[in-house]
What does this fold into?
Amino acid sequence: MTPSGPGYLGSPWSTGVERVLDGSVVVAGVDVADLAARYGTPLYVLDEADLRSRARAFREAFERALAQVGARVDVYYAGKAFLSRAVARWVHDEGLAVDAATGGELAVALAAGVPGARIGLHGNNKSDDEIAAAIDAGVGRVVADSLVEIARLSAAAVARGVELPVMVRVTTGVHAGGHEHIATAHEDQKFGLSMASDEGGDSPALSALLAVLDAPGLRLVGIHSHIGSQILEPGGFVVAARRVLELRAALASRSGVLVDEVDLGGGYGIAYLPDDVPLDPERVAQEVATAVADATVRLGTPLPRFSVEPGRAIVGPAGLTLYTVGTVKPVRLDGGFVRTYVSVDGGMSDNIRPALYGARYHAEVVGRSSDAEPVPARVVGKHCESGDIVVHDVPLPADVRAGDLLAVPATGAYGRSMASNYNLVPRPAVVAVRDGAARVLVRRETVADLLALDEG
It folds into this structure.
């Protein structure tokens, strides 16, 4: 993607972020100091043009690559990364479908005007109400995650007199992702059905696919796989794609049914630190297209329609979080090393990933310029936890002080969507910026909101 101006800060910032002559920082033409003064901090800031551009880049890259081998593709935005009515409209405008993991995400997408046929419902433990809502909305697919769920989906579809399009989520055995909790294709976890078979019998994945074919009220439309998150090399996607196509061929051999679609999931990695290199959409699309074309030739089967889900890679780099610095405390460690602890007015309630996954982020002072030498710093939150860390290690100017504005880039994904009210802290607002203007997408919670839920 092309930087928007000479002051562009580079990876991991959105392309609309620039440092101007006085040292302050603007996003899409809006000064971050003005945003903080108008909307308060902590504050999630989304660069709308950057998000839209990334959505287009993934859709166009996969459409081009797969068209070259004679296949079509749908790109699904993974709503779990961050979903609001505005974001759902943006990605729909850019030609993407929406993947919802819960009834709440489904409701937001529908409220945004996304047609039901352009929404898929995921989840390993869907409630009866969520299944009913998906059927009533006419979703394009429900992704089944277990044999028990297949029976429940069948019963619900028969009760409503409809034919429900279903995919089956399988685990390919391809291990990828930056942390064990976000690597989702190994067998010892809650998602999907294993492709590994015991003592020569059918694998759970094949058994589930056959069960859908036999179930009244269900129409098997495809096979779904997902190998993890924050993946920076395309090799895992290539291997997983081959394995899913082999399963598709095995199903056809057993049943005579060659399913129409294969979903290759997502998990495309982004830059969180200045030296990180994100996964390039063109590169992964080309390598996957070559692999699937070769695999289908070898298997003697026609190419299916494909779908992919680059959720984090679309919204993550488009967002940043603004904080106001409070306490600054140098701490002398063994050997005389001094680390400066910089406390901000947010923390693990607005970004749980450093505490949950040990995720690494970058930060900069953005409201002013500084000629001070950088010092080793750790950005921490205001919560009553020693693990309340926002940025583990980052050089900040030695004159960092209370009242400074601090920005953490690449927080568009899993910041607001995983935010909590820990210590009864209201969740921050989400503001979109574009062409020199700002508007609220999700308002800031207030103490009154917290008390409104408390029945006393």
